[in-house]
UniProtKB/TrEMBL annotation:
Residues 1-10 have a biased composition (Polar residues). The chain crosses the membrane at residues 127-144. Residues 1-23 are annotated as: Disordered. It comes from Nocardiopsis coralli. This is Uncharacterized protein. Keywords: Membrane, Transmembrane, Transmembrane helix. It comes from the Bacteria. The keyword Transmembrane applies. The lineage of its organism: Bacteria, Bacillati, Actinomycetota, Actinomycetes, Streptosporangiales.
Amino acid sequence: MSADDSSQPGEPNPTPEPSEEVKRSAIDLVAAYADHDREALDRAIPPAADHADAVVSELKVLAAFLGRRVQETGVMWKPADSREAVARTVAEMLPPELEFAVSTAWEAHSLGEEEIAERFTLGDPMVYAHMLAAFCAAIGLAVYKRSELVSTLRQVGGLEEE
């Protein structure tokens, strides 16, 4: 066993901490959607796509954090609200076929229909990245101002302010 391998025989290796690049990519996607800035989204997509699975994982962490924040603040947020918010957030930000895939996959996901959601993603993890980033932007803006949202997500990710 190497000095940097902390797992014991028979124990799974701990999941490595996401890289700073992955965290920044996830937050950049959320920020682009929060700003409804198509050019920023176009710049954020290539680095996110380079590490799509890791970015999706980081976006799940951010979505869980924001979901808890909404509950803590008492803001009313129902599954129907998230479906509408994600559809509205991606509207005109993505090519029509991708916008449809993201909106439809999120609708199925929000209803717990993971198999149906998976069909609409066509196996592309970036569809999940878009739907989670749009969800994070929508739900985040329900409790934070835009500047607070991005700053808070950077803190959650352990990143320094830019």
